[in-house]
Amino acid sequence: HTMAVKAVSSVDEAIGHINSHSSGHTESVVTEDPTCAETFLRRVDSAGVYHNCSTRFADGFRYGFGAEVGISTNRIHARGPVGLEGLVIHKYRLYGNGHTAADFAGAEPSRSYIHKRIEGVAAAAEIPQAKLAKLS
């Protein structure tokens, strides 16, 4: 697996880099500064933006949508006759405190993540739920 990490000198530099180079799917910021976090969550142009929690929460099943059948980073994705609800897109904000994604309880077949410790990074406590805010 590959993890993209870049050290930056400001939240503005981070936001500019992410908005230029990301897939638009899910981004996360780790900071103790609530103003920095809110700026990041508000200005990063991705479907999911997270503060102090794992991007492994980015899953339709975890969001309560049932089985995830696909993902889209497009802003308009519907085809054929479409009503107003079909044109609405959503942005999700997840607020955490070192939250990580637990294994999928009750999934058939059983699924689990393999977490590896990254040298120099403190281990976060395993907490099953984080606060999810849906923005339309």
From TrEMBL:
Signal sequence, start to end: none
Domain Aldehyde dehydrogenase positions: 3-59
A Pfam entry, by short name: Aldedh
Record's protein name: Aldehyde dehydrogenase domain-containing protein
Lineage: Eukaryota, Sar, Alveolata, Dinophyceae, Suessiales
